[in-house]
Design a protein that fits this description.
single chain; mainly alpha; globular; HD_domain; HD domain-containing protein
């Protein structure tokens, strides 16, 4: 994987980044809404550390903002 990214974190971001679009059947503000849903799921499952959850949620929240350059995980999903 590029830039020494954690494959589990990257895959989780990829899987969850459009979650709100499918769960709520709407693309309105989907990046932000997906990040909130993902945060709840990830905290409940306890598969990732708090830092890893923050990384995942931040990337999901940022993925629709193509005009700004963010962290490496956010850029991966843009």
């Amino acid at each position: 994987i590029q830039n020494n990214l954690n494959i589990e974190i990257a895959a989780t971001i990829g899987i969850l980044h459009d979650l709100a679009t499918y769960k709520l059947n709407s693309s309105f503000d989907h990046a932000n809404r997906s990040s909130l849903i993902a945060s709840e799921l990830l905290k409940k499952d306890e598969l990732f550390s708090a830092n890893e959850i923050d990384t995942i949620v931040t990337a999901i929240k940022n993925h629709s903002n193509k005009e700004r350059i963010d962290d490496k995980y956010s850029e991966l999903i843009k």
